[in-house]
Structures are given as structure tokens and as C-alpha cells.
Amino acid sequence: MASIWEWANPRKFMAWTDKALPVIAVAAAVLFVAGLVWGFFFVPDDYRQGATVKIFYIHVPSAMIAINAWLMMLVASLIWLVRRHHVSVLAAKAAAPIGLVMTLIALASGAIWGKPMWGTYWEWDPRLTSFLILFLFYAGYLALWEAIEDPDTAADLTSVLCLVGSVFAVLSRYAVNFWNQGLHQGASLSLDKQENVADVFWYPALVSLAGFVLLFIALVLLRTRTEVRARRLHAIEMRERVQG
Amino acid sequence: MMPDLGKYASDVLAAYGITFVLLGGLIILSLRKSAKIKKRLKSAEERRKSNG
Amino acid sequence: MIRLLLRDLTLALRAGGGFGLGLGFFLILVTLVPFGVGPNSERLAAIAPGILWVGALLACLLSLDRIFALDYEDGSLDLLATAPVPLEGLVAMKALAHWITTGLPLVIAAPFLGVLLHLDTDAYRWLIITLLIGTPALSIIGAFGAAITVGLKRGGLLMSLLVLPLYIPTLIFGAEVVRRGARGFEVTTPLLMQAGITAGAIAMLPFAAAAAIRIALR
């Protein structure tokens, strides 16, 4: 009986991702394009929000990915700290820039939506503020990776930072909620409250969400493969330097 | 072909535009780094083999 | 442990600047703000709680990299790490020393600087109480940040980037209590939240910081 941890053996990881990545990438591209084309061209205008409702097909999925990428990094960091699987921590490193970009997209699309709807690009609304804080956390995490030369030390320290950062990110979320009651609408697109949204808006949202998720997975795999190779390259170069 | 976006056309287009620029940039950077590392690793592996 | 605390305090005193640096920064910041926003006393009173809290936070940040950097450079951190004292205790003592040399002077100075900013009379006791509760959290979080960047070149700037987001909850609740206190509102909830954050940080972060130091010294 093969343990699931075998999937994290670097050689096995490279082997199965080599086969899986093209499939996932194609599926991601198809769903991503389909979701956005559906959302952009075929969704009717909302009676209150007009055409701006179309912004949600990028805003909501990118926001969900932005949060879940950090969760994934947290899990991967924990696995690294407990079981010392190199691929795990490299996946966390690979996911961070994607999370950063997704946070940026969520912030930018939110700001653009906010201008006609709330009359301002930026409002210190709890969710917006939380995303700004999340952005800072991603930036700090990436900066720490860049600053440390030894790869294993970097992996350990960034994992510790990710753990502590997660606790404080949750704290900040509640603190910010307390600090300013917001004007964001409730969880209109969350999975458990789907009755809130009419089907015309709901199905393309699901498709584009699936597209974003697959895109995230494809990018993580691609970047993790790069990191695994980079680590191996680093090892070879170090050995060459030692030998002369 | 183009749907009528009404008075919010510029906002919607800007949001989609920013998304494509950012995601496109991320994808291109990831691919380029992947190719670069792949090439360097390949040459390093060959050096290692030829040196024994 | 007590010896360690005393050692750090003596070192800070002898080197000078330990007390003065953060305090001087705090003073200058508070002096500069009215030049920036104008001398209107109502406007100053409105932003005073926030300015005082942000100022205290930045002043705290200023002296953080001293916590471990000096000991790391001259090698005494290696000795301390192998000493029969738990590293967690060392971190806690270091943070305590930082609080006594930086946090406590800030708490004492804040009311006087509050006068400059026309802080409301009712808010003074809340300012002192929240700073008293909040600054230990700033010190221990800072000690974690200093531990995770110990031994890095140009670690100071990176540390600010890592530590500032972690300061957000403390800042929010601290400034909120003072703001509410100034208007005579109920303050129990944010005060308890802030105390909870401080207690939690003191309970957990020494372990994280000690782990980071072990990794860095490996």
C-alpha cells in the first residue's frame, strides 16, 4: 500500500506532475476562458449594478484564491516542519507569488468596482483592509525567502513566519472587523448561500471559479517543478565549487 | 460582438484588463523562469556526467 | 534568568541610547505632526490617540534590531544558546529588557506628549492603560521579528516589513480604546481583546522566536 507521502518524493513528484501538468493546464485554460467569456459576454446586466456585475467574475474567484493560497502555504509549511518533505515547502514558496498577484487582482478589481458603486476607489472597509494586510503578509514572506541564502534555513524560517503570520492574520481580520463595520455585501457568492444569487449569475461564476482554481493549481505545479530543479541545480553547483 | 456595457464600460474593461496583465505577467514569468532553470540544470547535469 | 535580564539592562545603560533613542524619536514624531496637519486644536485632539499609538509603535520598532544583533555579532548568542537556560526563557528576558528600556519610557512619556496634541482629559488614563498593556506585546512580537532575521545582512529593513503587519491588531485595539475613552464610550471589549493579544503573544511567541534562533544558529 503506497503512502500518500510518496507523492512528495521529489523524483516521483517530478514524474507525476510531468504527466499531470499539461492536462491541468489545458483544463485550466479552457475553464478560465469559458468562465470569463460567459461572464463577460453573456451575463445580463444586474438591475442595480448594471454592467459592473461582470467584474465579480474576476473579483470573487481571485479573492478566494488569495485567501486559500495562504491556507495552502500554511498546510505545506506545517508538513515541512513536521515531516521534512522538501517538495512541500517548495510548493509553499511557489504559491506565494501567485497569492500575491491574486490579492492584487482582488484589490484592483474591487477598487474599480467600488468607484461607481460606493463612489470611491478605496474605503477602509474591513474586507478591503484585510486584503491589504494579507498583501503585506505575502510581501513579507517573499522578502524573507529572498533574504536568506541557505535554502534549508530559508525554508525553516519562512515556515515559522507563515505559522505565526497565520495566527496574526486571523487576529487582524477580527480586529479590523471590530474597528470598522463594513459596507461589503454579505457572502452572496459563498457556496452555502447560493439562493442569494440568480442562476444566470451563479453558473458562470462557478465556471470561472473552477477556472481560477485550476489555473492556481497549474501555476503552483509549474513553479514547484521550477523550484525542485533550482534546488537540484544549487546542489550540483555547490558540489562543483567544493571540488574546485 | 462587443456587449453593451453601458456607462460602466471603462470600469469593467479596466478590471478585466488589469487581471489579464497581472495574470499574463505571472504566467510568462513562471514559464520563463521554468525554461531558464531547466536549461541550466541540463547543462549542469551534463557537466557532472562528463566529469564523472 | 534574572542575571540575563540585569546583564541586558546594564549593557543598554552603558551603551547609552538604549533609553534615549526610542523616546527621542517619539518626541520628534509628535512634534512634527502639528506642523504637518496644522495647529487647529480640535483636529489635533481628534487624531491624537492614533498619532500617539503609531508613534509609540514606530519608536518601539526602532530599537528592535538591537535585541539579538549585538549578541549575534560578538558570538555571545551562541554561548547563551548552549547555556543551561532554556532559549525560550532567554527570548522572554530579552523582550522584557527591551520593554523596560523602550516600552516603559514610552508609557511614561506619552501623557506629556498627549498635552502637546490636546488629547482629551478623559483619554489620558486609557492612553496609559493601553500602552501599559500593549507595549509588552510590541516588544515580544518584535523579539520574534528580530529572531527570525538574526544574522541577515540588511536585516533591519526586512524586519520592519515582517513585524509591522503583526503589530496591526495591537494598534487597532489600543487606539480604539483611547478613542472611545476620549468620547466617554464603553471600552471593555477592545481592552480585553488587547489584553488577550498581549497574553497570547507572551505565551506563544517565545517558543517561535527560540525556534527561529535555533534554526539561524544551526
Automatic annotation (TrEMBL), chain A:
GO terms for biological process: cytochrome complex assembly. It comes from the Bacteria. GO terms for molecular function: heme binding; heme transmembrane transporter activity. Pfam families: Cytochrom_C_asm. The keyword Transmembrane applies. It is a multi-pass membrane protein. Its main location: membrane. One of its GO terms (cellular component) is plasma membrane. It is found in: Cell inner membrane; Membrane. The chain crosses the membrane at residues 20-43, 55-82, 94-113, 128-148, 160-180, 200-222. Residues 9-184 form the Cytochrome c assembly protein domain. Keywords: Cell inner membrane, Cell membrane, Cytochrome c-type biogenesis, Membrane, Transmembrane, Transmembrane helix, Transport. Required for the export of heme to the periplasm for the biogenesis of c-type cytochromes. Belongs to the CcmC/CycZ/HelC family. This is Heme exporter protein C. It comes from Pacificibacter marinus. The gene is ccmC.
Automatic annotation (TrEMBL), chain B:
GO terms for cellular component: plasma membrane. GO terms for biological process: cytochrome complex assembly; heme transport. Its main location: membrane. Pfam families: CcmD. The keyword Magnesium does not apply. The chain crosses the membrane at residues 12-31. InterPro entries: Haem_export_protD_CcmD. It is a single-pass membrane protein. It is found in: Cell inner membrane. Keywords: Cell inner membrane, Cell membrane, Cytochrome c-type biogenesis, Membrane, Transmembrane, Transmembrane helix, Transport. Required for the export of heme to the periplasm for the biogenesis of c-type cytochromes. Belongs to the CcmD/CycX/HelD family. This is Heme exporter protein D.
TrEMBL record, chain C:
InterPro entries: Cyt_c_biogenesis_CcmB (IPR003544), Cyt_c_CcmB_bac (IPR026031). It is a multi-pass membrane protein. GO terms for molecular function: heme transmembrane transporter activity. One of its GO terms (cellular component) is plasma membrane. Keywords: Cell inner membrane, Cell membrane, Cytochrome c-type biogenesis, Membrane, Transmembrane, Transmembrane helix, Transport. It is found in: Cell inner membrane. The chain crosses the membrane at residues 12-37, 43-64, 96-117, 123-150, 157-175, 195-217. GO terms for biological process: cytochrome c biosynthetic process; cytochrome complex assembly. Required for the export of heme to the periplasm for the biogenesis of c-type cytochromes. Belongs to the CcmB/CycW/HelB family. This is Heme exporter protein B. It comes from Pacificibacter marinus. The gene is ccmB.
